[in-house]
UniProtKB/TrEMBL annotation:
Organism domain of life: Eukaryota
Gene3D superfamilies: 3.40.630.30
GO MF: protein-N-terminal amino-acid acetyltransferase activity
Name this polypeptide is given: N-acetyltransferase domain-containing protein
Keywords for this protein: Acyltransferase, Transferase
Transmembrane segments: none
GO cellular component terms, A-Z: NatB complex
């Protein structure tokens, strides 16, 4: 049974094989971030830095997400999802990570939408995220996969209603 838990500093030693596995698989999303980046991210967005653990405390993968923006542009960006491809089914793990992050982002930080940038030729990842309710937007060689929360839809409906009221008011 897989357990999703918060990342801790000691986990940095355990994720090295995952990063090396991705490098050896010649993935385009090779992680070249340094230790300083991981510590900074862990300090700033600790609730969004998650790890999947198998029985026996073996790390199956990890996820890094960040929250940014103000007002209706407040979003949660899925920055890095790294499953240990060699040993575990990545689609199920990615789904678990995304679902956990969505709950935190929606209920705690009250973001308006989720976003993930992917390479245009990452068809498998694009299909997976589309099945999870994300919509694909073109941004050149990278695609933006976005999923609005009900809060954004309500905000847009409220703004539309206000505009219609302004139009209908006589001057």
């Amino acid at each position: 049974m897989t357990t999703i838990r918060n990342f801790c500093c000691n986990d940095l030693l355990d994720i090295t094989p995952i990063l090396m596995d991705q490098y050896n698989q010649r993935l385009k999303a090779v992680d070249t971030r340094n230790l300083k980046w991981y510590f900074h991210t862990l300090a700033m967005w600790s609730k969004y830095f998650l790890v999947a653990e198998a029985p026996g405390n073996r790390i199956m993968g990890f996820n890094v997400s960040k929250v940014g923006g103000e007002g209706c542009k407040k979003k949660c960006a899925l920055t890095h999802i790294a499953p240990y491809i060699r040993y575990y089914r990545s689609a199920d793990m990615i789904k678990m990570f995304v679902e956990n992050v969505e709950v935190i982002a929606d209920k705690i930080d009250k973001v308006y939408y989720m976003e993930m940038l992917v390479h245009a030729d990452s068809n498998q990842k694009i299909n997976l995220f589309e099945r999870l309710g994300y919509t694909c937007y073109d941004e050149g060689d990278r695609l933006s996969l976005q999923k609005p929360f009900p809060r954004l839809t309500e905000y847009q409906a409220q703004m539309t209603s206000m505009v219609q009221q302004k139009i209908q008011q006589p001057e």
